[in-house]
Specification:
The protein has 575 residues and is of the alpha+beta class. The protein has helices spanning 3-68, 74-101, 108-132, 141-152, 155-172, 177-198, 201-206, 212-235, 243-273, 281-341, 347-361, 377-414, 424-440, 455-462, 464-481, 505-521, 549-565, and strands at residues 445-452, 487-492, 495-501, 523-524, 532-533, 536-542, 571-573. The chain is built from 17 helices and 7 strands.
Length: 575
């Protein structure tokens, strides 16, 4: 074969190789652009899902008002309820329409859950209408509470829908994670705030004091609300420089935590004593509902920023893709001309460059690239190969950093940021697996719920930093006394939960007593503070038959409260 023919043969091979590399880059950037476009649409779907949750939650206010309003205003309240139901139905229909139009098969699960929401909502509305149709003297506490709970029970499935569509949005664009987390925190805060108000519906209608279980549930909701407010400060640090976010957060603190929350707390004090609330449910909705509106305004501020950022990244990806296509076309033209004009002069350098390009395509980055000795086309090619190698190494490094970041985010999502132990969500994931194994193979399973006694006093006397240190030392002490198979998590505030596999109730009591003894005997030295002693109250339950995890926890929770009432620093078994 002649050198000329050999040169053209090699030139053709180089052009094919360059085409493959260009196509690879173009396909990758096209994928980035397509994911960006999908991420914008996914964020809009998340917003529709959250608006559906908002309208369904808001509907509880008119529903509660109709069941407990005075006869004079009932016609007006029914009109307000009809309007609220219309808004809920419209929001659910809008979300359903978008999910059905979307070709992504992963939205099918969310669509099925949405159908369940609509069926459950229709059933809950029937119970509300049934109670509203009764005369006041015909209503019973249990009936009203069941109607209220029916509306609340719709929410978890809607929250699951939001979780599904949020996961798809983050998968399309991981940079959406912080903003979507903030939106979900705000939506959860609005929901729990609404549930606190709903807890007073039946007692206000019946003008009766709060039952013990209602007080416990309201206390739990208080804790969740405060935890979510704290989570906004932790998760949304990147938004602190956004003026609209700071203003919305200030309005939220002023309107809800400064007015609405104290108002509900006042009703709680009345419900603990007499039950003479001095208002009906329509008045409760009128006074309390407006204070929750800033929560939704905060969510909308985050949503607006997310959309702007996602659209900006999408435009940047599109411009970059166009630039790559233009550069690729130009490179092809220049490459062809150069091959034709300098084939004799660059024959050998081109052969050597071919080996180098193949090595880069196969990611053999240890292959040395000669330095360009001249300022001609061959020198330009060698310099370009240096740049290509550097960029390839940079992309590999960035991909590795991204995987590391994703792993860190997964760990942080399962870990309590203060104590380093599992958080509540991770505990439920681990514990559901252990529960399934125990029930399948008929094994024992115990659960311990403990709460540090008089922890508020520690915070008040020594400060919150000392309180945080006490929590960390407590976790360390408990962890040293548990087996590797035991699951320890922070359940909320100063409350911790422990799952003890392969242990019955008596063995769980022994573990709890051991922990109680070690805690009460320990003196904590923190900075220059005097030694601090703590005690804890324990509630212990064990698996019985086909119980759910919530049922086991509920029995342990009741036992722990009995330990509190029995003088603290003791262990009580669940009945």
């Amino acid at each position: 074969m002649s050198l000329n023919r050999l040169f053209w043969f090699i030139s053709l091979a180089l052009m094919l190789l360059f085409s493959a590399m260009t196509a690879r880059v173009v396909v990758r950037e096209w994928g980035t652009y397509a994911r960006g476009a999908n991420s914008v649409e996914a964020v809009r779907v998340v917003q529709l899902a959250m608006r559906a949750l908002e309208t369904v939650s808001t509907e509880r206010g008119p529903s509660n008002a109709v069941m407990g309003g005075s006869p004079a205003v009932v016609p007006m309240l029914r009109q307000q309820l009809a309007a609220a139901r219309g808004r809920s139905d419209a929001a659910l229909s809008d979300l359903q329409t978008v999910l059905r139009k979307n070709t992504d098969a992963r939205y099918v699960s969310a669509l099925r859950k949405l159908e369940q929401v609509r069926l459950a909502l229709a059933s809950a509305r029937q119970r509300v209408d049934q109670q509203a149709g009764l005369l006041k003297e015909q209503r019973a506490m249990d009936g009203v509470a069941l109607a209220v709970q029916g509306m609340v029970a719709v929410v978890p499935t809607l929250v699951s829908v939001i979780s599904d569509v949020s996961s798809l949005a983050v998968e399309a664009d991981p940079e959406l994670l912080d903003g979507l987390t903030g939106m979900r925190v705000a939506a959860s805060l609005r929901e729990y705030a609404g549930q606190v108000g709903s807890k007073f519906t039946a007692p206000i209608i019946m003008q009766q004091p709060l039952a013990q279980h209602e007080v416990i549930e309201i206390g739990k909701l208080y804790g969740r609300i405060e935890q979510l407010r704290a989570l906004l400060d932790v998760e949304m640090r990147s938004y602190r420089n956004i003026l609209a976010y700071r203003e919305a957060l200030a309005v939220l603190d002023r309107e809800y935590f400064g007015r609405g929350f104290p108002y509900i707390d006042g009703l709680l004090k009345v419900g603990l004593v007499s039950g003479a609330y001095g208002l009906d449910t329509s008045e409760l909705a009128r006074r309390y509902a407006p204070s929750m509106q800033p929560i939704l305004q905060l969510r909308d501020v985050i949503y607006g920023d997310l959309i702007r950022e996602a659209e900006a990244r999408n435009r940047l990806a599109r411009n970059f893709l166009v630039g790559i296509l233009v550069m690729a076309l130009f490179a092809f033209l220049c490459f062809s001309v150069l091959l034709y004009l300098v084939r004799q002069r660059v024959l050998q350098p081109v052969l050597r460059a071919t080996d180098l390009v193949v090595g880069l395509a196969e990611e053999r980055f240890d292959t040395p690239i000669p330095l360009a000795r001249y300022g001609d086309e061959v020198g330009d090619m060698l310099r370009a190969l240096h740049v290509l190698k550097a960029r390839s190494l940079e992309r590999i490094s960035l991909a590795s950093e991204r995987e590391t970041l994703i792993e860190q985010l997964q760990v942080s999502s399962n870990t309590d940021f203060l104590t380093g132990t599992l958080n509540r969500r991770a505990f439920f994931v681990h514990s559901e697996q252990q529960l399934a194994i125990a029930q399948r193979y008929q094994r024992n399973l115990a659960l311990i719920l403990l709460d540090i006694d008089h922890f508020k006093r520690i915070n008040d006397v020594h400060g919150h930093l000392v309180g945080d240190a006490i929590l960390r030392h407590t976790v360390q002490l408990i962890s040293q006394s548990l087996r590797k198979m035991d699951v320890l998590a922070r359940y909320g505030g100063e409350e911790f939960i422990i799952l003890v596999p392969e242990a019955d109730l008596e063995q769980g009591m022994l573990v709890a007593e051991k922990l109680r003894t070690e805690l009460s005997a320990r003196q904590f030295d923190i900075d220059d503070k005097p030694q601090i002693a703590i005690t804890a109250s324990f509630g212990v339950s064990a698996l019985r038959g086909d119980e759910s995890l919530d049922q086991i926890i509920s029995r342990a929770d009741v036992a722990m409260y009995l330990a509190k009432e029995g003088g603290r620093n003791c262990v009580v078994r669940a009945s």
